[in-house]
Design brief:
The chain has four helices and 13 strands. By secondary structure, it is of the alpha/beta class. The protein folds into two domains: 96 residues, Elongation Factor Tu (Ef-tu), domain 3, CATH 2.40.30; 124 residues, Nucleotide-binding domain of ferredoxin-NADP reductase (FNR) module (Rossmann fold), CATH 3.40.50. A seven-stranded antiparallel sheet has the order 4-3-7-1-2-6-5. It has a six-stranded mixed sheet with strand order 10-9-8-11-12-13, sandwiched between helices. Strand 8, helix 2 and strand 9 form a beta-alpha-beta unit. The structure holds flavin-adenine dinucleotide. Flavin-adenine dinucleotide binds next to strand 3, strand 4, strand 6, helix 1 and strand 12.
């Protein structure tokens, strides 16, 4: 690096819990603070890689969406799905003020394609933080259609947006989260509006892949679909690029 070269963007963060509380029975918000948060420049929909303590010792990488960032208040929120006993899920359930976590990022390519004529979102609870944040940033009146999979009526969130949003909560009603045709069935019934659409598909990998294939069969081009597998049964951390 030459003496005058600008410093590379900061990528490492030492997060400290300020508070933690349940938004719904299955979604727990943890609010963190950290030094230099005013230098965290991200696009809504992007995530941090958390170094999550593991029961056997050491840490494992877990990706979590930046749900909100308030640089003035030095506060960053992450919403954790409560899916049972697993490192990140359990850590969030037990999180108390003063707990610390290392994080790296931001990372990720699920970001708004603002030039699209309309926007289509399909997600399960792991994608809810990304969809909620993207919706907050949309232009007034922008047409948006969302199918969001949750367990039951108590898992619904109030979503804030100026977009012209048509929203359907898709309830599992006790069925296990994971591979299913719940979101695909909704999408199959949807008449695509005129103009160029942009799709954002995030959640369980096999469901995301099925949704992507469906849209491709209906004429969507690669560039019109942001799709990423956020989890799948048996996978530990990580993510699946769904590009096929
Ligand atoms: C870019 C990106 C952003 C993400 N953002 C968020 C976010 O904002 N909030 C969020 O909650 N998740 C988010 N995820 C998903 C999250 O990273 C995974 O669910 C992760 O595996 C959870 O870690 P864990 O330690 O709890 O479970 P792991 O140790 O990774 O997994 C243990 C077991 O639990 C299963 N499992 C993992 N997640 C779930 C689930 N949601 N439901 C049911 N079973 C599960 C695994 O398949 C495995 O069998 C995101 C993923 C990516 C790639």
């Amino acid at each position: 690096m030459t003496p005058d070269a600008p410093a590379p963007p900061r990528d490492e963060w030492q997060l400290e819990v300020v508070e933690a509380f349940d938004l719904t029975p299955r979604l727990r918000r943890v609010v963190f603070t950290a030094a230099h948060l005013d230098e965290l420049h991200y696009r809504p929909g992007q995530a941090l890689v958390l170094r999550m303590p593991l029961p056997e010792g050491g840490t494992g990488r877990r990706d979590y969406t930046i749900r909100s960032l308030d640089p003035a208040a030095q506060g960053l929120a992450i919403d954790f799905v409560q899916h049972g006993e697993a490192p990140a899920s359990t850590w969030a359930r037990r999180a108390r003020a003063g707990d610390t976590l290392s994080a790296a990022g931001p990372r990720g390519r699920t970001v708004l394609a603002a030039q699209a004529d309309w926007h289509l979102f399909c997600a399960d609870e792991t994608g809810l933080p990304a969809v909620a944040h993207l919706l907050e940033t949309m232009s007034p009146g922008a047409p948006a259609f969302a199918w969001l999979e949750i367990d039951g009526v108590r898992d619904r969130l109030v979503l804030s947006t100026q977009a012209a949003l048509t929203l359907e909560w898709v309830q599992r009603d006790g069925q296990r989260p994971g591979p299913s045709s719940l979101l695909l069935d909704c999408l199959a019934r949807f008449t695509l509006p005129p103009g160029r659409g942009q799709a954002y598909l995030v959640g369980e990998t096999s469901n995301v892949r099925a949704l992507r294939h469906h849209l491709v069969a209906r004429g969507f081009e690669r560039g019109q679909i942001a799709s990423e597998g956020y989890w799948r049964p048996g996978r530990i951390g990580g993510h699946d690029h769904v590009d096929d």
